[in-house]
## 1
Amino acid sequence: MPDTVSPYLRFDNVSLGRGARTVFDGFSASLGERRVGLIGNNGSGKSTLLRLAAGLLLPDAGEVFVEGLETKTHRGELPGNVGFLFQNPDHQILFPTVGEEIAFGLTEKGMTDAEANAAARELLAANGCEGWEKRAVHELSEGQRQLVCLLSVIAPEPSVLLLDEPFSSLDLPTRLDLSDRLRALPQAVVMASHDFEFLSAFDRLLWLDDGRVREDGRPATVIAAYEASIRGLKTARRA
Amino acid sequence: MISNYLGRETWLHRMPAGAKLAALAILSVVILPVDDWRALVAALAGVVLLYASLGKEAFKRLAMIRSFAVLLAIIAALHLLAGTWQEAVAAVARLVMMILLADLVSMTTTMQAMMAALTPVLTLLRPFGLNPRKLSLAVSLAIRFIPVLSANWEARSEAWRARTGRRPSFRLLGPFIADTFRIADHVAEALDARGVARSRRGGREWG
């Protein structure tokens, strides 16, 4: 496991069941790199791990620390520190217009409506979306909606971003555009994805398999091991 | 998530949300005792003109009244059975007008403006231990979800028609309600992720 200096995210012997299923049983990991990717089959625990880190789920046993804050006791402070980007933009967007969607996180942080609206306008302009604030969200394309989600999440300036397969429903041009924007973000990013090309530039990858870390290290090594295992399984099945 | 908000700004968008909500409330009360069918039809024509004044896109939204066709037909039939055709026309015109007026407000008002207008009113409930901002968010979300749920019902009916060739049946109700709960779960999680209602401890099942 690569050395991590001052981790922003730490899982300490975490156990979590969802219904009858045990997702994690004594899971421990420590993340401190600027770009960390999570790979693995569907159901391996990637989404659940991100939700634990955002405090959307709390561990049954063990502890999760984000920027030193334990998620059970500091739940209220987490949204200011971590931003969570959902897989499906429609699961995040609550408001009918772009401006108020972005402003919402800011008013939750204590800004007045007027201040939050001004900040939303500025953020949109800075990201090449001048004048979008009055547009109806449902009139935007899927990629534009995902961009609005990203801007809403980074507006309150969290230090850690958790991204749950943000590319899964996007076409290639929008995916490339969003990739460029993600690359440029100053925040630490933990991202679950199947986009190995994008993940190959990351600092570290974790391959999750049935709630455990199967492989941990540089992207090239981890991706190769993952792909080899999938191919191995297929050949074994064919034989 | 679908909404009925009109993206292109009109004069009604620029009206303060509080004024629009107050006008809606007052008009609804004023319309209620009127039973002269001619007056009601004339007023309805006025509402249609109001839609026309907002441009072509808004005018097309008038078609949404079709989804109330069955309900309106039942109301008209009951009035025809129990009374006169004038009463039937009056009842239908009154109801259509109220629906259209309410739709005008939600079509041209952002949720933020709606919440800002509702919060001072709901502050009156503070002595009962209710948080006015959370309450106004809840009320606005409830209004916001009417088009979401009707779109969801439409989508299910379409799938039903495509696979059975028959009219939607009550059997769709089960999956529709299950879907509604799923949407509610997603909204709850989205609110949670943005820091709403984080005062309580303990997690929520996410599914």
## 2
Amino acid sequence: MFILKLLLKNAFRHKLRTTLTMVGLVVAICAFGLLRTIVDAWYAGVEGSSSTRLVTRSAISLTFPLPLNYGQRIKSVEGVSGISWSNWFGGVYITERNFFPQFAVDPTTYLALYPEFRLSDAERLAFMRDRQGVIVGRKLADKFGWKVGDQIPLRGTIYPGTWTFNLRGIWDGAEAKTDESQLLMHWSYLNETVRKLYPKRADAVGVYIVGINEPQNAALISQRVDELFKNSLAETLTETESAFQLSFVSMSEAILVAINAVSLIIVVIIMAVMANTMTMTARERLAEYATLKALGFAPSFVVKLLFGESLLIALIGGGLGLLLTLPLAAGFASAVGTLFPSFHVSGLTMGLQVVAALVVGLVAAAWPAWKMSRIDIVQGLRHVA
Amino acid sequence: MSNPQEPLIRIRDLSKSYQRGGQDIPVLLDIQLDVQAGDFVALMGPSGSGKSTLLNLIAGIDQPTSGRIEIGGVDIATLSEGQLADWRARNVGFIFQFYNLLPVLTAFENVELPLLLTGLSARQRREHTLAALAMVKLEDRMDHYPNELSGGQQQRVAIARALVSDPTLIVADEPTGDLDRHTGEEVLGLLDELNRKLGKTIVMVTHDPKAAARARRMVHLEKGVLVDEAPDLLTGKT
């Protein structure tokens, strides 16, 4: 109890210095948390992927479509429980800044494979009935203030012309990591229009989504699917949905490594600042520590005082930084809109923030504590005189 | 702690030297000194004579180069750092020239500090602390911080801290050096009271002959050597 009182009084003896150190910690821990959340958000697509879904695409490149008739053949492969397909639409809503993913899908089969997109029965039915209808995720609808019944004009880039869609439903994600930033339209409507305007591009599919019941057989089923189209004009590459998503993330791997490095450098910098504070503190209190030792307190008591004070400052600063991360992350997510399908501070990130604050506190006190535990009492007492 | 026939402090062949720039600088040379329990000894001498070093050795906060320092029959020169810390906590009360109070603690908390090293309960610690503060007549200032007290009051808090754990020996290094004459007299009167009424053995370093005159016995040091011993002020014995 006494030592706790002494720690608190010591920690706030120089209010300005302690406050500035804490502000530094708040900023560092908050920045660490935000940067880690950005990296997490990059991987959100991977984390949101299901182990019961495979993705089959052209073996050459994702930009090469696959024939529509592959669907039936894939469905006949042993282990496949369902099949659907989608095309990247790539439309622009008002300006290019309003980017969000748009897919043309086969509604019935697609929604059956994505049960995490929670839609009311009425909205689902309305979407099925309206070939010009679309459904969007809650996050996307909130961003643009869309309501069911609104018309959404998109300027096509891959499929030229202005396309006007009717918003028939808004889905909510089953989990926080579920992507709510997409727009889904009828593939048949797109294909019908394409057939009229560009007949050669009709009946083409971007990717097949393959449902499987036994995730442990994913590799075997992928192999079976790809063997089916071996030596054909359009060979396929089948992989798990997470591997498919990861292939996008790996394109920006260098950026992610840089962000991770910066987040760690920030922690190292605050560690140096905090160590400097604790060293100054210890030097100023040299005579006090010498007095305590003269009175009979063991060197370990001085060590406890310094580590305790350092940890107290680090945990208060770190705790405030952690608390500030949550509203800042929400603000950041709102500012960047649908750039990240999911932007949430994870439990792991919060845990790492606490660990970072603890490490900063411990490392910062290590040198002054070692030094002060070894001070010569006579020299220390002379420091006053 | 000791046999009444034996001196409380027995110093034999005590030498202390420091290493400075590869050179051996002697500070104390072959000191022989006995101090009886209940005595009040003033260590005097010019600056650099080694009086503070001798006091530090007696208090167990410095180690001799050679010789023996027996206090209450214990040769403290042979104790390890940890043993010495325990020994100081049980046997020595410190009074410093600049009081050395912890500025973040109140007068009460400063006085209570040495009792944290004892097995006393919080209630017992409070009783002892209040008694010590009463002895230096500072009960009414117990919630004040050092910077809210005058120099004389701070030194009285330091005296209360020195006696709160009922140590065998009180060492005082220039206790009036930072005080005006009047306040210094008050502090010396308090030390005198501790010695006479409570029978505390006090070893005090001072430059001031008037302060030294309050002691029962004066010991002079010059260039690290005990040069003479003034007669016992009360008994006239040397």
## 3
Amino acid sequence: MRIAAALFSPVAIASPMQDVLQPAGPQAGHIHALWLLMLIVCSIVLVAVTVAMLLAVRRASRGDESTPGDAALLTRDEHRIHRVVGTAVGVSIAGLLLVFGATVITDRALAQLPLNDGVHIRLVGHQWWWEATYDDPQPANVFSTANELHVPVGRPVVLTLEADDVIHSFWVPNLHGKKDLIPGRTATFAFRADVPGTYRGQCAEYCGYQHANMALLVIAEPSDRYEQWVTRSRSSAPQPADDTTKRGQQVFMQSTCAMCHAITGTNANAKRAPDLTRVASRETLAAGAIRNDPTALTAWIADPQAIKPGTHMPANALPSSDMEALIAYLETLK
Amino acid sequence: MNGPTIAGTLPPGAHSGPGSDRAAAFDVGRYGAWADKPGILGWLSAVDHKRVGRRFIATGFAFFVLGGILAGLMRLQLARPESTLIGPDLYNQLFTVHGTTMMFVFAVPIMQAMGVYFVPLMLGARNIAFPRMNAYAYWVYLFGGAMLYVALVLNIGPDAGWFSYTPLAGPEYGVGKRSDFWAQLITFTEVSGLLVSIEIITTVFKLRAPGMTLNRMPLFVWAMLVTSFMIIFAMPAVMMASTSLILDRLVGTHFYNPAEGGDALLWQHLFWFFGHPEVYFIFLPGLGFVSMIVGAFAKRPVYGYVAIVLSLIATGFLSFGLWVHHMFATNVPELGKSFFTAASMVIAIPTATQIFCWIATLWTGRLVLRTPLYFILGFFFILVLGGLTGIMLSAVPLDLQIHDTFFVVAHLHYVLIGGAVFPLFGAFYYWFPKVTGRMLDETLGQWNFWLFFIGFNVAFFPMHILGLQGMPRRVYTYAAESGWGTLNLISSIGAAIIVVSVLLFIVNVARSVRSGTPAGANPWGASTLEWATESPPPPGNFHPPLAVGGREPLWEQEGIVGRVDGLKNDPPEVLVTTLLDALPHHRFAFPTPTLWPLIAAIATTVMFVSSIFTPWAVIWGTIPIAIALIAWFWPSREETEKHKRMERAP
């Protein structure tokens, strides 16, 4: 009973992170309206059929195994039942037309999101992380980040979705439904966040070992804060200032890190793994697998397989002084 | 004595009503060549549809239990957040093998197996058409299913999900031999499924008792007929899909490789063109069970026979027009998606029609409230709920939110367990006395039902909410902060209740098979022909075969109009009848037991399994198969003589 009540009042069981029932933008809002209509129509049908069945059982006379079967009914025309069953089928068809109509209307509403002044992001799915490239007519303004999208509240976001290896699916339930990222194909997907907040999403198409740990955050913030973030993201990574962080950068460049990761403004330009230019500013590591703090980062670099078995990042047996320097350096990348 | 004749009228009392056991009327010698040979070789060479059907059902149920154990392990892992009980590698194998087992190795085969056992009996036939092929289909199925579990135990079980999307299952990302085992399992089940479909269609069209016109066939037979046609039309799509997948993996073709001009989405079209009808060939036989049980336990003919038959046929056709609703999140054209939304909603109408007909039947019947009927009442609630969430999923915008989440997991279990497994358990309770001659225990049956019904809803209802809260399917773990922990724990408790319920069923079967109340020919006082013969039915089923005069033969005065005389038991002769009106057409001698189907199945298995490791196995592997098939069809002098003697008349 409580569960049923909760279905009707989503707030009662609201999850703080990701929830279809708490739309934060027009797309999720349209779908939520359709959901409510469906829920009402379907609940009525379920109750009606269940009640009809229970009434039938209650009302019908009882027999036992030796009761003879009423074969005479084979030749009798059961007028009254014809009418009732015929009406029920008719009502079902009408109900289906209603929900089909609502579906088409919702479909059209979804397609009519105004796209002018949109933020264009190319999102590429990798096993098991998200690569986001913010587009700009000025090539110098293009920048990359990973596993975390900042978007301005009230402006449409147009995603160009691609996959690097297998099929993934982009899904941030508070903002919109899902869209697959398919190798060899490009999809576009548009949404708008109207309420500031942090919305969690995670890959919705099974993509191998670490499908469970392929999350991303969409941080919707007011325009001015978003613009600040964009400006900061466009600049190169801060240069190390003290000896420890200088040593840390050296470790980064000389160990395996630089073979896969990029930090703008340095010689590390590899594209096999998340861009680390602003890694310290992100809330999570390893596509949402763990929170981002120096301890977690150390553990992650030392033995990624312990945290995310199957991840493509190798273990790094660094001397502890090097590790400390590396962490100190990475923590400056904000 | 020369030709078959239809003679005399049996007194109706001779074969209806509980307790009329006519076993005494027969002596073993009269079964002649219908009986399988004694001993272990006889066991291995059996071709009687009831023996093969029983094995088929028992094997299917064993795979249901195995698949259930895998599900239990998954629920154990998901019971609490961030559990480290099972790692991703094992978990991915668990859900892949669970899904593959339930869809390919349990549900479709066990429904066909019920058809293998009961369709001939309901039609008054003496065996299933192509009985040797039937034995072969069983062995191939058994070996295929066993291969899947050998692979799982060796930690090389498939791990790309039961629909095995490329490129995850392709050569580049599906490492090792895991997806090859999956693809070959599909080949095994295809061969078995197609063969059984051919047998069932032939049996229905040509072996009906004289007088059983098409419009007198029991509704379960109609359901199996439609299902068999669907299998014949749907299976080639998955055959194409799995063959090209294994070619990609084994010989380096690029059907699904976009980098070389292939297409990752091609797989989804081919797979779901089969996969969606597959749901309905699990579900339609379930509807057939419901029709049979509702009629028998409401003590009246099911209301709306014609409507139900047309609904089954409509469902069969429509089910081929829905496949894209599994692909709404891909970038297929938007306008096309609306068409599939409409088609997916339309298919609710035939199902709704049948549900209304059954409720009308119950409403106007005299109900015998026993375990089989309880399972059907449970079916109503669960299936309707699952069907309604299906309508939600058919709406493109809503599907975008709930597709590939636990909402879908809930939906598909409501539809498949509600639509197929509940009726199947009802069918087990209903027909167990026919198969074993003893009744299942009613008290245990009630416990079995209520625990299953409650456990099922506790396990699966919360998953709807989990899906809406954003939990995707196929995740081996989730964060504590997600807030999904409580509902997952509730769901796992529900799964534990289901386990208890299924254990009770197994206990019930184990006890009743030895010490259950003897059933007699027709313990429920039901109307169809399988209840006209002994329990369990003798080899050859009907001695003599009956001629039918109505749709509910054991209830109507003129239901059994006579018996067929002049058919020999050695060679085992059957009367072949015409397609529409079941008029006697000619005599035909049936094949007798032989070991060759088993040997051919072993040869087939060797080829299929070896071809996982080398494509050349397809070349050399055909030689033993060819030898086995030639030996299988080689006419013996003795048999030819018998057939010649038969040709003298009329």
